[in-house]
């Protein structure tokens, strides 16, 4: 290694640079062709499987994106190997090169390994499919792709979030079963609680009769809090997955109108004013 | 290793690819058959054990899910070993391959080991069973499955949380014994405290007489806080597990009505207004 | 290792599986018998020791639970060793197996070692006994068991908390000596401070005369804060351990009534209203 | 090594210092020439490619900046190698020098490796292009450059943020598809909810008719919250990317004017004042 | 190792268990005797030293508790060594046993080493003595014991805090020199600032004349803040250690009474009310 | 090493101590002379370069301070080497001394390596120059020096902050291009929004006509928020770097005066008071 | 090692214990003599240097405390070495003892190395001198001692903070140059802004004329905020180091009096009250 800098023949170097550039271009073109062929083959396979076997579409898309994902990574590493080899570098010695560089690389790359290990188990345990509504580490949205290294989540405001799998610790999947609709409504301290509960329950029953997305309830639980200015009554219900917000909105409107119709007050914040006059 | 890229015979490669694909398919099918047989055997074993021996159902489900869980992981690693072998890779050398890659893998995979070690002790110490209501690391809900790597918790709003066991540090299990019902109620500064305590205690006694879920109390402790606008009285009670919220709701309604009936004021926030007129 | 997959004789394997299952069952049954005998022996030993030697009961229970705890762990590892041996695995080689797996296990298991080291010193330094009221890392409650790996804390609301010992850093033990009762009470800015202090001190002296749980004080310290609307007077006292809340509640009621009886105002929040009329 | 301090010939040293300085200057000049030539070649290549092949300009700039970035780093390390060699230091032995220094360097430099590994995958997975509006780790702005080690983000207030790639964990890209416009508007408790919803929907339809940036909606969802003083109605819509704020502003003005025109009150915060007169 | 399970002679084992238990008991008793003798010797030594040499008592207790602490740890490790030896285990091989277990133990035990290293330097640098009032990592109280591994702090509410020394980073010692008393008092915007400062300074001078715990001041600094409703004047003073709270309380009362006597208003929060009448 | 303590000849030791002290002094003096010469040479070089080549002064100072910085570190390590050698210690063996000490040093010194690596890339990528206004990790101010280990930042309140380079993760440089001026102004709900926008835009245009530091705008964007008591209008503009605050101040005054002149109300917070009279 | 427990001759042991105790005492006494001599020599050296060479006193004390600090540590380690040797322990083998203990010690002691490395650079870069007012990691105060391991900071309330150097990351030194005085003052929305600015600037000029601690300004910058109830005007100034608070206090009083004298209102918080009468 000591002498390589002197041994450089600057004229010959320019010639080699041309040859190198040519080789490099050839490899790139080859790479692009192989990749596009591979991808279309994989896509076709999955679309056939989906039509023939009628698997749930979320799972099919999850697997399809994953296979393309893995295919791309393998391809890139193979071609990178070919490129390095053309320029006389041995990947083997590069990777096995222990010592300081090895230490730094080992520590620096542990994040990548964590990503893949976590990603593998998320897929194995089917923690989420494409199309699920999830909350992971403060990000809230619909899964667009589950990869070995990264998961793509589309937020409700349209943002696309790229999350390395190692960032996924506790995963809250909101698309696995019926959901709860919960409404808290405050009535005045002067009102009779039993009457109010009866009025609210009747309103709930009417809402249920007209909405087939409600699976259980809605039922009035009772006094949840004795607030500063109101007695808070809680109503809960079970709805079909994804319908919880619509049901909550419908319940809020119906309950408010029922209380109005029965002259039960929903109070504003109260304050007792003790008056002193000075100066 | 240096020559493997040149040695690739592209025509022969295509042929091999076909054979490989065939072998791969065969292994996958074998895997699916073995898995489904294994699972049904395990399920049958547990359902018989449950009916014959009358073990508590939470524990039976915990063990059943755990056994299936372990069975699946072992199966996957065995089949992965077979697949790798077919393609000429030695798992032994792969794993023992120290150096940079080994370092990175060792660090990256420590999370997985942590998961299993923690999971093993959670099961050994019976910290939770399927069906328990727990709070772990900010997640609140009912246990659906305790696995070696992951615990599944169903939140009350219907969300299913997947939590790697390493995330579990302090585990609060709310299903192990009687629970406390606690109600704080504020009375006006003008009211006599002893009278109010007597009225509240009588209301508590009436509630207890009609509710067999109350194990101890409810008893009035006394003045918990001298608040900005009210004198806060605390009432506590012991109830059967899971009944604490219902008892609290019942107590809140009963105590509020008792104070109303005895003309003891529950005050709104007060403010003294000192008036100055300018300009 | 290379050939083990081919060498599997599938027919013979089924036979062996049966034998293995039998051995496994035998070991499990043996394990359950030994464990229940061991436990009852330990329990009897301790109950005799407790009646004969009259040690403080908290410490006896701590030691008893610890001994059972250690007995269980040792038993489990011994039986696990027997099981592994039956299936031809050497624990020695398993544990000493350095390389990537060793690294991962070493890192992953450090939490377990931390638990045991910390647990050992907590027991050695007698930082807590069963029955103590402690606060550790945000969890507040009564100690139910101090183990080598885990500590069980019963919260006041009935929840049972399982805390790995490594989570215990600063341990606040509230059951080691007399406790302080502290009451802050606000009087109006118009009142004479010296008069108020005298009235409050007299009320304190009356409370003390009737309550033998008070060890020192209660004494009025003076003006703690010049608040937005009130002059805050602080009263402190020393009580027997566990009686601080009851004393505080009694003091709050007595002091409020003393101020009422002497026409000293406890003011509501004040606001000066400067009035401007527009439009 | 032991004798090198004695062997220093101070006179000769001054002479050598001059020669060293000369060599150093020569290398620096050479470095600057090579760098400027290399950069202009790369820039020209990309500008031709952009005009001939009509690639999307964000991607072209991303690649161009990346190639210059990598070219600069390679050049610097090559010249640093030449400089070190001139002064008799072997990079090889420097890097491979294990022991204490090696350990410290290995740990200290892991951040650099993390940067490059993360940067490589961000580019490979096309998580962002120059010109995208992103949010990363609390920084909000437009991407100016994606490098192997650092990403440059221009905040909306004009600040240029330099972010090492390892700091990038979850990347929120706001430039990938249609965005949501969301307006919450509160109406008085006295108003009829159905009428209000109808008025708001009509106003929404008018806005849509005149704005081609709106892709879906806007549609009135219903009662989102029963607030302290108002009933909050939610309106959402899908717009072209980047147009969400303009659409929200337009909607806010239109909806407010529609409510005014129909005499539907948007209420101020309410408070009930209970009056007591003392002293 | 392979054969030890078979070689167990179950009858002989029971006999041995008895002998082992006897030996174990003997060692425990020996341990208790040696410990109690050692402790009383150390205590006597220190009490003589304290009376003869008149060292400051805080330091004597610190050293005495430390010596007992170290004596206990050494004793325990010696006896643990004896016990292990009796049962045929070599501590040497146990500790030197590298490999996976060694790695885990090394990592797990680093906390213990950190405790001792930090503890050693805290003692060497005399950062605190028994009886000092300190604040460490959010815990506030009086030092009861400074050990090599743990520091005991008694909070003012009576709680005893056990803190591993590694948790001690920045240590705030409030018992090393004079302390500051600081009082902020607000006057009305209508008052003349110079008059108020003069009145307050006179009151300060009177307080100082009657209190020998005040070392410097109290002096009025001037206008600290122009608040929302008041002009805040700051007064500071230096007092003997531990007397700062008493002096602050005395100052608050004296300053409030001085302002009252001179008709300078301490204002309540102000709000200008602009009135509009609707509906 | 075992015998060195016995071999100490105490008389000879005193003589040696004198000689050592003399040598030490000589080295120190030599060090101070070399340092002051070196520094003045570097400073002169840079001041000539600055006047001859007219480089931007921020960059010249950055480089000058860096070169002095590196010169000082090299000098110190060389002289430390000489000192150690005089006292018979080999730096080589000191540094290469693996084992426990080496491990501790390696871990302890990693912060230093991180500082230098980060510092090197900050300089290479020209992330900041002396005189730039930056925000790094919560510190806000003007760069005074960029060193290999530490960066000096002068806060606007005059404080000088010393920040180790490893603390620099995301660096926000506010001196790279035009800045935004942003003013939010609230108008009453009763006002006509279109009129208000027109009035504000006219005021903006007048401000722009008289201020050449404004590069774009200011333009009125529209209704940013429907606030609790006001309709908030947003105005933004682009200004020369460093002029954003002056422009914002000018805009605030001009817009407020324009609204006053056109009788458009800037409302105070509103509250609806519902009056109830009790007792 | 196996036999050492048997080989203990208990009678001889007691004799040896006496001899050991004697040796130990001798060493301690020697240690105390050497230490006190060394300290007084160092102190005398520095006091001469300070009077002869007139170095800035802060720097002299910093160096003096540092030298004593280092002298103490070296002495302690030398004597500890002698003590260990007397009792037959080799420090060399102790330290070099790799394996589990070595690993634990290496990790545990890294904090100590970090302290010394950081301390060395803080001293080398002269980041602070004794007497400087600094803010480090939330601690605010005057430097009393800069040591190799610990820095002592005296808070303004009299507390002495001991901070390990590794805790020092960003160091804010408030004693390096002129400081800024900043006053924000709010005027009513009804006032004319230009008049107010003129009045405030005149008051500022008067303050400057009488205070030689003001280096620049004070000058009125303009409208900093359009607040909820007031228009906030900002005034800034540069003062001598340490005089910023006194100047701010003087400015606050002068500006408030100037506004009063010119009848410009400093407004209280405003609220518009819309009145509705119900029930």
From TrEMBL, chains A, B, C, D, E, F, G:
The chain crosses the membrane at residues 20-42, 63-84, 96-124. It comes from the Bacteria. Residues 183-266 form the Mechanosensitive ion channel MscS C-terminal domain. Coiled coil: none annotated. It is a multi-pass membrane protein. Its main location: membrane. Keywords: Cell membrane, Membrane, Transmembrane, Transmembrane helix. InterPro entries: LSM_dom_sf, MS_channel_1st, MS_channel_C, MscS_beta-dom_sf, MscS_channel_2nd, MscS_channel_C_sf, MscS_channel_TM-2, YbiO_bact. It is found in: Cell membrane. Residues 69-110 form the Mechanosensitive ion channel transmembrane helices 2/3 domain. Residues 112-176 form the Mechanosensitive ion channel MscS domain. PANTHER family: MODERATE CONDUCTANCE MECHANOSENSITIVE CHANNEL YBIO. Belongs to the MscS (TC 1.A.23) family. This is Small conductance mechanosensitive channel. It comes from Fictibacillus barbaricus. The lineage of its organism: Bacteria, Bacillati, Bacillota, Bacilli, Bacillales.
